[in-house]
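so my prof wants the structure for this chain in the tokens format not the other one, which i didnt know existed until like an hour ago. anyway here's the sequence
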Amino acid sequence: MEKQEVLALVDKGIMLPLMEDFYTIQGEGFHKGTAAYFIRVGGCDVGCHWCDVKESWNADTHPPTNIDRIVENAAKYSDTIVVTGGEPLMWDMEPLTSALKAKQLKTHIETSGAYTLSGTWDWICLSPKKNKLPEGRIYEEAHELKVIVYNKHDFIFAEEQAAQTNADCILYLQPEWSVRDKVTPMIVDYVMKNPKWKVSLQTHKYLNIP
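here's what i got, hopefully its the right format
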């Protein structure tokens, strides 16, 4: 297939720069502890300095893969599919989610919300970043808000973001892994004083699984 033809298919969401896909246990947020199949899409320009998947940033290093193949693999393992990145909303998610839905699979996304929401989702985890704030509509659609806490100023950011979400959105504060010993006690104290928030941990790292 010619390069221009491939790029056109990627632009339409028929192919996606697939970094990896795998079956594991969801480690974070509302669905932690449940089995799910993860589709990690390459490409991200949000640029979090503490990102633990920086190899996902450059989409050009990940092969454009037809969504039919991605969906076929996913359907073998689980009825819950989590699309993550990178930043998956850099790409049109409608073709992928339509193909997943055609197989009666549940669709979850983990996103910074920095790009316009596309696709049909059963669960939207919005994890906003200061570097590139979410597009407005996703605040209304998000099922959970997950704010990563790196320092005390992130609590202010968390409240600013929470004020824009819908009334049913579940609110999480999650320690950034590299400073977890320092910020986890701060999060515990904050949640006890502000019980609308819940604590999220990267339990998959404690379990030593992907």
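also thought this was worth mentioning. The chain has seven helices and nine strands.
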